UniProtKB/TrEMBL annotation:
Organism this protein belongs to: Neovison vison (American mink)
This protein's record includes keyword Transmembrane helix: yes
Positions of the G-protein coupled receptors family 1 profile domain: 45-296
Any Pfam family hit: 7tm_4
Protein name: G-protein coupled receptors family 1 profile domain-containing protein
Places the protein is found: Membrane
Encoding gene per record: LOC122913554
GO biological process: cellular response to lipid
PROSITE patterns for this protein: G_PROTEIN_RECEP_F1_2 (PS50262)
Length: 319
């Protein structure tokens, strides 16, 4: 136990309870089925994409390596959040250990930031492919992907590392019920009897620095792509480029929009049900993961051909 200047005595929590959707308990029943289906779709589609890229030699190119990174991030994010949420829905397993909670907090913040950064690198890849096609093989190389992967990992893992550290150093005054389905930083830190202004400020600064800068560069890339596409004179070239890049951009916009909506609903939580931001936060960890491999992978002709080759090879060899 620790005595504080305000006279309170805090008992360090050994575990927390995730008390989600207390205002709307019926949501658990209605959400469990679509959430489990989305989880299975996300895990299955991303696994198929990874296996296809890994086994098909013709897909061993920088663009597909970036797709593999995105799929790995999606799989980790889903596994970090959704099984625990479903365990709460189905078996009422609300308890989560102190260390598991802050590990989940770190993975969520770090991998969401890495996903945003991967989108930015992929947007740059498309920009070079369309705006500088002759220079593409010399710019987007395996070495470029390796350096991009190191940058994605180093930048985001370091800057997001302090979010759980700042929360873990707080004293929780015997309070251990988190009004959320996941260990979100703000939901956890508000249980503390300490001053949490630093936690809020750091999360805000990191979020807008990482996600904001990525979003600006993504918009810039696709603006330049759109300008170059509109100048294409070859028959059907502009339509094909717009179809591919348009679907990618819509997916990135969806990823960013649902995050912005979550932020604004959290700010305006007094005017709306407190369960809305919780719902958006959970869905943000599974819907993009389910859509990414479909939009980026299945709609790509080379990926579809690669899946077809593997299936034919399996039928022939019995593997």
């Amino acid at each position: 136990m620790t005595a504080h200047p305000n006279g309170t005595i805090s008992t360090e929590a050994s575990n927390f309870l995730l008390n989600c959707f207390v205002k709307s308990p019926s949501w658990k029943f209605w959400l469990s089925l679509p959430l489990s289906l989305l989880f299975l779709l996300a895990m299955g589609a991303n696994s198929v994409l990874l296996v296809t890229i890994g086994l098909e030699v013709s897909l061993h190119e920088p663009m597909y390596y970036l797709l593999s990174i995105l799929s790995l991030l999606d799989i980790v994010l889903c596994l970090t959040v959704i099984p625990k949420v479903l365990a709460i829905f189905w078996f009422d397993l609300k308890s989560i250990s102190f260390y598991a909670c802050f590990l989940q907090m770190y993975i969520m913040n770090c991998f969401l930031a890495m996903e945003s950064c991967t989108f930015m690198v992929m947007a740059y890849d498309r920009y070079v492919a369309i705006c500088h096609p002759l220079r593409y093989p010399s710019i987007i190389t395996d070495q470029f992907v390796a350096k991009a992967a190191i940058f994605i990992l180093a930048r985001n893992s370091f800057l997001t590392m302090f979010i759980p550290i700042l929360s873990a150093r707080l004293h929780y005054c015997g309070k251990h019920i988190i009004e959320n389905c996941i260990c979100a930083n703000l939901s956890v830190s508000k249980l503390s009897c300490d001053n949490v202004v630093l936690n809020k400020m750091y999360q805000l600064i990191v979020a807008w620095t990482l996600l904001g800068s990525d979003l600006i560069l993504i918009f810039l890339s696709y603006t330049l792509i759109l300008r170059a596409v509109l100048r294409l004179k070859a028959k059907g070239a502009a339509a094909k480029a717009l179809s591919t890049c348009g679907s990618h951009f819509i997916l990135i916009l969806f990823f960013s929009t649902i995050l912005l909506v979550f932020v604004f609903t959290h700010i305006a939580k007094k005017k709306i049900s407190p369960d809305i931001p919780i719902l958006l936060n959970v869905l943000h960890h599974v819907i993009p993961a389910a859509l990414n491999p479909i939009v980026y992978g299945v709609r790509t002709q080379e990926i579809k051909e690669g899946i077809g080759k593997i299936l034919r090879r399996q039928r022939i060899t019995g593997w």
